[in-house]
Design goal:
By secondary structure, the protein is of the alpha/beta class. The protein has two domains: 355 residues, Alkaline Phosphatase, subunit A, CATH 3.40.720.10; 73 residues, Arylsulfatase, C-terminal domain, CATH 3.30.1120.10. The protein has nine helices and 22 strands. The strands form six sheets. Strands 7-6-5-4-12-1-13-14-2-15 form a ten-stranded mixed β-sheet, sandwiched between helices. Strands 17-18-19-22 form a four-stranded antiparallel β-sheet, with helices on one face. The protein has a two-stranded parallel sheet with strand order 3-16. The structure holds 2-acetamido-2-deoxy-6-O-sulfo-beta-D-galactopyranose and calcium ion. The site of calcium ion has 6 residues, from loops.
Length: 503
Amino acid sequence: MKNTLLPSVLVSLLLLVGCANQTSTPISNSPNIVIIYMDDLGYGELGAYGATELKTPNMDRLANGGLRFTQGHASSATCTPSRFALLTGMYPWKNKRAKVLPGSASLIIDTTMVTIPKVLKSKGYTTGIVGKWHLGLGSGPINWNEPISPGPNELGFDSSYILAATQDRVPTVYIEDGLVVGLDPLDPIEVNYKENFDGEPTALSNPELLKLNWYDGHNNSIVNGIPRIGFMKGGEKAKWVDEDMADHFLFKAQEFVKLNKEKPFFLYYALQQPHVPRTPHPRFVGSTTMGARGDVIVEADWMIGEFLKTLEDEGLMENTLIIFTSDNGPVVNDGYADLSEELLGDHKPAGVLRGGKYSMFEAGTRVPFVTYWKGVISPGVSEALISQIDLLNSLASLVGSEQTPTDSKNLMDTFLGKSDLERESIVLEASTKTILKKGDWVLIPPYKGPAFYKMVRIESANSDAYQLYNIKEDVGQKNDLSKQMPEKLQEMIEEYQSAVATK
Ligand code: NG6
Ligand code: CA
């Protein structure tokens, strides 16, 4: 039976219950669920979030046709920890291994842990991931020429089509259900993050082979003329074509939907844009005046539009909850000389917020966050403080599964726009440091380190003293109130200490 068709008796019954409670149309408790997860997309990059220099009609369609959260947070200002928290509902700072990982890292989620795909699978969902993983693979040194396990398929995903770490880290191959796609057994893959393989070109030894220059780091193996982090040998036929990656993932995401449309499905569609290296397909090159970074955002927007068309063509729009968000805040120069900084113009990736990727300031974790469900979620804006960490128990509640005792709060009614319930507070992480956000207040404890990350040109928020901000009155975090408001400061310090003590 098609999951959009409920037996008519059940429908009438549900309608009756709905009327008795004077609520709107009753909702299905097993809609398809899609998480569209961007990589490094900032709070200010969507038209719907105030961007004027970039056109994002498809992301805006979700944001304006759904519920647009103005205080939706990733759990961390970098990728791996945010993705860990998204899937497990656990604060990433509780897992020492939840740090930006090399491509050779082993899996950092214990296979006994509860995850979103496991919860949904237990309720009959078919579950899949397409796109960026970055949570490690295997349980020791990885042999890329044999089935690689454990990975997403051991954490509740029925199918997986992933890039292991990041687009800038080796191995630069796709992995489907634990197997490198297109691998020629006569040309095995070797990966090393410490030293190069004899005679293999690197960005330092053979700069003439580069079509894109490195700015910081990124000077190891060269693949497709792009220098990467880490060394790789072999696997020639299996290597991805960077410019085709977005189309490739879109195709896989569409294929997953078409294959699984008869039963409820969960798809984690983790796009690689606008993370470095930014490699727009030629048809998107020059689609903005901002160079590669702007062009890949437009490219990603187009992909999302095509993906939505597939849901429409398959008649699934009214029965699919879409969650759109990003793993951390924006960065313009993240280690490649791709002119994104020079060509940025008036675009403000972080919008009105201070900081960016890696930063403890608001733009590190406050990201675009939208819930969209045609006919069920009324278009609107919510100022509720929510986090991606809350999706685990919220989705569990939606599908009638039990709550997991973890850091995830059931805010499903808020995600559906039926309530203003929000988190009372949240501990956010940036580059292994933690801060507290509670109500209108943000406390940033003292941390050693540069106040400004020179290479990426982002303010870290490191300081010798506590900082206190009222983000309702001062969203740009310009006025540190720690000296003016000693009592509030003390209260927040105590809250922070007790929040990080509860392991
Ligand atoms: C940094 C990389 C950066 C990016 C980041 C991870 C350098 C100089 N910088 O170490 O380019 O890959 O790691 O980004 O190598 S994340 O979004 O996956 O967290
Ligand atoms: Ca990221």
